[in-house]
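Sanity check

After download, print the first record. It should look like this:
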Amino acid sequence: MNSGSAENRDLFPGALEMMILQILRRQPSHGYALVQHIRRTSKDLLQVEEGSLYPALQRMLKAGLVKTRWEVSPTGRRVRTYEITTRGAKHLDRELSNFERMLEGINLVLAPMKP
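Expected structure tokens:
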């Protein structure tokens, strides 16, 4: 995963999976659509490479967080569409809760000290 700047920064562990599951919660998607959605909604701040996306999807498939089916795209190509499972939705809820608590703690530490 690359940032929009010249320096290469990875997201914290689990961030890509949370984003993928959140997108899939809204609607099933294929890999290229996931990449484009992340890029577009992050205003090009996040650019997911295939070398990061597909291994993450495979890990989530193995863990039962997502399932797949083959479909034909509007352009006539066969595409593998990913869909969140009930287990994946529960996992996402837990991870989002943990993330929000972590972010709250970080914000408290980074907040300007009061005199």
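If your output differs, re-run the checksum step. Summary of this record's structure: The longest strand covers residues 66-72.
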